[in-house]
Amino acid sequence: TRILTVPTQPIEGQKPGTSGLRKKTKIFMTPHYLENFTQAVFDAIGGVAGKVLILGGDGRYFNDRAVQVILRMAAAQGAMRVIVGQGGILSTPAASNLIRKRGADGGVILSASHNPGGIDEDFGMKFNGTNGGPAPESVTDKIFARTQELTEYTILEAGDVNLAQLGEVVLGDMTVEIVDPVTDYAQLMGELFDFDAIRNLFTGGFRMRFDAMHAVTGPYATAILEGTLGAPAGTVVNGTPSPDFGGGHPDPNPVWAKDLMDAMFADDAPDFGAASDGDGDRNMIVGRGIYVTPSDSLAVLAANAHLAPAYAKGLSGIARSMPTSRAADRVAEKLGIEAHETPTGWKFFGNLLDAGRVTICGEESAGTGSDHVREKDGLWAVLLWLNILARRIEPVQQILTAHWAEYGRNYYSRHDYEAIPTERANALIQRLRDISGDLPGQTFHGLVVESADDFAYLDPVDGSQSARQGIRINFAGGSRVVLRLSGTGTEGATLRVYLERYEPDASRHDLLVEEALAPIIAAAEEIALIREFTGRQGPDVTT
Ligand code: VG1
Ligand code: CO
Q1: How far away, in angstroms, is 281 Cα from ligand 2 center?
Q2: Whose CA is nearest to atom 8 of ligand 1?
Q3: What's 28's domain CATH number?
Q4: Residues 14 and 162 both lie in one domain
Q5: Can you give the residue ranges of the Alpha-D-phosphohexomutase alpha/beta/alpha domain (predicted)?
């Protein structure tokens, strides 16, 4: 084996977004593209010589090739050991767990998460640090800076490593350790939850449907739910990962997981439904005849977490991303614990979790997690729900109704305008920045603006600042609109409009969400001129 030094040039646009670098797969496959970004990551962390890394991805198209390239580059640059999931597969939370458990110096995760996969769809890559969490902005800024000055990279001249076989193989001077992707993760779940109680639930005839959406959680869910917990065979559907996720969007929401919604609203619906995304860090929760919004799920999980062994001592605090509904804040208030509001993206929770300031975190985009790893964790959320259901023996519907009666209901919806011209999206946001100072006191569709700003975050742990994280428009009475541009898309810009109405009165907790939010939607249009700027009559996706 020889080490090759390959001359290269900076490639434009290798800027990590909300969650790593995401591009069309074909872009990632162009010569030097993957290699350049990998080199930039290695350089940004001070090289990989003598280090231990975790490596794996969600199995989407090009995962298998990319893993081999990264292994050869790590070997060429003196890494001591790379621990890879069998077949190059690791879910995002499982990778986070392995980094922590094995005391690794970090990990590379190959995924574009909920974005579709395939040669004509999306691919992605992100780096997680020693705590198991996504690299903070200070590191992603360094990575981006390195992509703009690269002149060469090094790679070992060698054939592919056989990743099908568990065990250790040598690549140059580096050890490649191939591990089962599920084992360590499944063990961790067993430590957190009351598996006996959940097993009894299933023995008692409780029925569930878990839709893995042809993505990475299939093997994890099958092993844990059907294997360890004794759920009947067939509980997990679409459980075999495929490189293009069966041609669908592996995005667990009522639009892309419509089959699950249909099953849960049918006459013979099971008791509980759930789904996860491409890389296994998101979750969707559906009861019989009722969809649980991720924001409500976060609040309910926080309020009931003490029913699971790992959280029996109580929570230190709760964090949510800024656009996530404020339902969780009310739970924190009642529990007398800290509540934090962070910018979108899991990387902003890392410091709070490391410092022990929060135990549970969540995002409106179907992400929930805790201090057990440093990523959101789809199956974790499902298991916490199951643990709660096993202890409360109540339908999901009843748990939600009781929660709303106690805390009030935060009606919530997100409208996405996808692939709109970037200049128009930027202009819309810029205009809101410009007028936000004048909004307070004005009335739109009967709603009085109380405050408006472009959210800026000051990290209370390390003092780092992140500005321009989205426009917040708060109305009197606890309702609000948030507007921001997505940082995970690969085509034009995606405008996200987050709509929230707080309703304390229990006699008004069973409205249709669209009806409950109608005044907020109208006010958002009047303030932000969405139709005019986007040229669209309505959102592409409503969740
Ligand atoms: C979206 C979500 C955000 C989430 C991110 C990564 O980002 O809104 O909450 O953390 O995806 O999730 P954006 O910038 O497009 O709004 V995943 O499961 O795609 O890694
Ligand atoms: Co994901």
Answers
A1: 5
A2: 365
A3: 3.40.120.10
A4: yes
A5: 14-153, 185-286, 295-407
Mind listing the pLDDT tens digit for each residue in 452-485? 999 999 999 999 999 999 999 999 999 999 999 9
Cβ(359) – ligand 1 distance below 6 Å: no
pLDDT of 59 > 80? The answer is: yes
Among residues 19, 96, 111, 113, which one is catalytic? 113
SS3 (DSSP) at 516: helix
Rounded to an integer, the average pLDDT of 48-63 is: 98
Which numbered ligand comes closest to the C-alpha of 321? 1
Q: So what's the ipTM on this one?
A: 0.98
Q: 158 and 211, same structural domain?
A: no
Angle between the N-to-C axes of helices 33-44 and 137-147, in degrees from 0 to 180, rounded to the nearest 10:
130
Q: Are residues 118 and 84 in the same domain?
A: yes
Q: Residue 478 is part of which domain span? A: 409-542
Residue where a domain terminates, one of 373, 407, 441: 407
Ligand 1 geometric centre to CA of 490 (Å)? 13
Which residue has the least CA distance to atom 13 on ligand 1?
486
Ion ligand 2 contact residues with beta carbon within 5 A: 113, 277, 279, 281-282
Write out the E strands in 116-260. 122-128, 152-157, 167-171, 174-179, 208-211, 236-237
Q: Output the domain CATH number for residue 483.
A: 3.30.310.50
Residue 488, ligand 1, Cβ within 6 A: yes
**39 pLDDT higher than 80:** yes
Residue 376 CA, closest ligand 1 atom number: 18
Task: Work out how many domains the chain is built from and give that number.
Answer: 3
Active-site residue flag, 316: no
Distance CA(176)–CA(179), nearest Å, equals 10
Write down the pLDDT at residue 488: 84
Number of helices and strands in the chain (H, E): 17, 27
3-class secondary-structure state, position 89: strand
